Amino acid sequence: MKKGISIILTLIIILILLIGVNELPTFGKENNPSNNYVAHKYIENSIEDTGGLNIVTGIILDYRAFDTFGEATVLFTGIIVVLIVLKKS
């Protein structure tokens, strides 16, 4: 009985994932979300807006500062937790 439920649940998850993949935009098309106006704005105006030496630095430190800070906080917290767990062992 448990094996049958596991198989049915696995097939449902596979079906949901396949439907999701089918809904993704075609790679390389102009109307993809990755080719929107924000990317063009970053490329054209980032050096002037941020005063950075290159585009990547300007995007990471000015446009995406809060996001980068959040990622750094998560990584720092993970490292601290791993060190605490290893120290107690």
From TrEMBL:
<dbReference type="Pfam" id="PF20501">
    <property type="entry name" value="MbhE"/>
</dbReference>
<keyword id="KW-0472">Membrane</keyword>
<keyword id="KW-1133">Transmembrane helix</keyword>
<feature type="transmembrane region" description="Helical">
    <location>
        <begin position="68"/>
        <end position="86"/>
    </location>
</feature>
<feature type="domain" description="MrpA C-terminal/MbhE">
    <location>
        <begin position="31"/>
        <end position="87"/>
    </location>
</feature>
<dbReference type="InterPro" id="IPR046806">
    <property type="entry name" value="MrpA_C/MbhE"/>
</dbReference>
<protein>
    <submittedName>
        <fullName>Multicomponent Na+:H+ antiporter subunit B</fullName>
    </submittedName>
</protein>
<feature type="transmembrane region" description="Helical">
    <location>
        <begin position="7"/>
        <end position="27"/>
    </location>
</feature>
<keyword id="KW-0812">Transmembrane</keyword>
